[in-house]
Sequence to fold (445 residues):
Amino acid sequence: MNDWLDAENRIERALQLTEAEQWTEALDELDAAIAINPNDPNWHAQRGQILDQLGRYEQAIEAYDQALLLDPGQLEIDTARAINLIRVGRHNDAVQALEGLAQLHPDFEPAYCHRIAAYTRMGQHHSAEEMFYLAQQINPDCPNCFHHVAESLAARGKLRKAIYCWKRVLEIEPHYPQVRQRIAEAHRAQKQYQEAHEFYLSALRADPGNTDLLADLGDLLIEMDDLPAAAAKFQLVHELDPQCQRALIMLGLIASQSDEADEAVRYFEAALARDEQYPGLRAHLGEAELRRGNHYEALRHLYLALEDDPDDCVALMAMGNCLLELGRASEAAEHFEHMIQLEPTLAGAHHNLAVCRFIENDFHAGIRHCLDALQCDPDNVMALHKLALAYLHLGRWTEAREMIDRGLAADPQHPGLNALPKRFWKLRLSRLVRRYLSPNRASKG
Fold:
């Protein structure tokens, strides 16, 4: 008798703890009660709901299975179980369970609604739309249906229609979770940055402490080329969550783009202290050390980065540049060649490989690589400048003049190109003078 009373008291405490959202403590009380009396289906169902809150979906399915074994045919529990089957990727099982519910209860709208989600995750979008229209006949204002079909539309790239459906969700249920963020992401994917910005802000007003949302907004601001505003957002993320490695890395990248190499190194080192294995981090740190002129410190990080990932293009470019600055052109060329194999359209890699060839006095190979760079980026001023210099060196005046004109059209303020017209005429005149004063020409007179 005392055991049964203890079980009831524990269930009462579990309910109180559930209301206070103290999920782990509530689960402990429920487990103790079920150990005393394992035959109450409601307790198993409640246990499944708490496990849902804890994100332990596989265990929640087991709890719902036990509840249904003790008391079959409970619609809510059957539905909760099917939702969890979708969450853990058992999509076929979920569809079969929901089909069974629809056969028993043809007007039970959730049996159609959640099949939209299952079919979407299976990539069966035609079936997802079919379920959506069947669900609409029962309940035309179900926010879950509009959300699920929006996910299906977005997966197919039909972003305008997806946005329409998500906006319908908000009309029906203004506090529906994550919808504003999904609308922002859809606008961002279409480069509709202002609209995306508005919806990210709206999402943050609903959830002001969400650091993931703040970081996503920071990423958007980088795409909008507003680095100071992006830095402010990532700084706020860092203040709210000092252990957030993403914020430190993004602050480091913004500092790098702003030519603040010392700041970049400080942020990257702080991120490295939190996780030395973070992909790509050492590549960025090595690049920042290179910008500070610390060549051998840069090499140390870049060797480790390439040891971890030989195809890291950031590390390959930085390593090539570092070796080039150290006068090791042939070694640098190997890294630029590897980059070109990975990404044939990287104009910077073609240009840097051309520089290596020029240093080795292979002007024809250097010219070829500069032309490859211009194939990737016709207005690449660095390649145009190097080509003009190479053509001047070889006395190919017409081609040199063309490269100078193209370069100045692309960047009228480029100091190297601005100095070339005077050098062009000086070299050409010098060549003409040498030609007319050469002994062979004089003897012919």
